[in-house]
Amino acid sequence: MGEFREISPSAYRVLVEERDAFMAHRLLSIEEDRVVVVVGAGHRRGIEHYLRNPHELPPLEELM
Fold first, then answer.
1. For residue 49, what are the domain limits?
2. Rounded-to-integer distance, Cα 36 and Cα 8, Å
3. Domain count, the chain
4. In angstroms, rounded to a whole number, what is the distance separating the alpha carbons of residues 23 and 39?
């Protein structure tokens, strides 16, 4: 992922960072007590970050 970020920062932002934020928004909107989520290894760290720090999420409207 680091190499991808270096080669194409704008593609990385859209395909990884914005997707992480979008998926975190969707996970936070689930009203169940327990959820099992399967994501690619490249998204795990970003999604976990946003789930621990939801105040850092960009507005959902900006991601769509």
1. 2-58
2. 31
3. 1
4. 9
**Is 64 domain-assigned?**
no
Residues 16-54 have pLDDT tens digits of 999 999 999 999 999 999 999 999 999 999 999 999 999
Closest CA relative to residue 39, chosen from 50, 53, 56: 50
User: What DSSP line would sit under 22-54, residue for residue?
Assistant: HHHHHHHT---S-------HHHHHHHHHHHH-G
**From CA 63, how far away is CA 2, in angstroms rounded?**
22
pTM above 0.70, yes or no: yes
pLDDT at residue number 64: 85
